[in-house]
Amino acid sequence: MPKPRVNDSEQDKTARFERIKKAITALEKQLAQISKQGDLAPQGAWVARYQVRQNQKKYWYYKLQASTACLPRATSSKLSKYKHLGKAGTQEHIDAVMSVFRRSVRDEIQKIIDTLDDCLLDISSGSEQEEEDPQD
To answer: Which of 9, 30, 72, 131 has its CA at 20 to 30 Å from residue 83's CA atom?
Structure first.
């Protein structure tokens, strides 16, 4: 099998670099679209279901919950770990669910962009093919 010429490998690198750049551009457009769709939930927040018992009846409610106090309170300037959303299907409940969804999608897209950025570095620095150190 003939050895690839230097020019062929440079063209291959350039083509791969351009494909990765095009993918990053498409993903960045997706990030912009997600931002336009509405608010993002705080990092690490989720929607939790909880039960209240009153007069021998059970009621189910929902809250936006975070591991740290980052949610605004309605009655004071302090931050809270919880935001009451009410019953299933209320506008606040749906908005919170969608904000958590957007945050999750945004985070995953950003991870992919970061990975592709690393690929660009590998291609441009020539570190995708390195000599191994000889083992003793």
So the answer is: 30
pLDDT tens-digit profile of 93-124?
Answer: 999 999 999 999 999 999 999 999 999 999 88
Domain count, the chain: 1
Residue burial 35-48, b: 16+ Cβ < 10 Å; e: rest: eeeeebbbeebebe
Residues 24-83: tens digit of each pLDDT: 999 999 999 999 999 999 999 999 999 999 999 999 999 999 999 999 888 888 999 999
Of 8, 17, 12, nearest to 119 by C-alpha is 17
Q: Evaluate whether residue 9 is within a structural domain.
A: no
Q: Decide if 109 contacts 30 (C-beta within 8 A).
A: yes
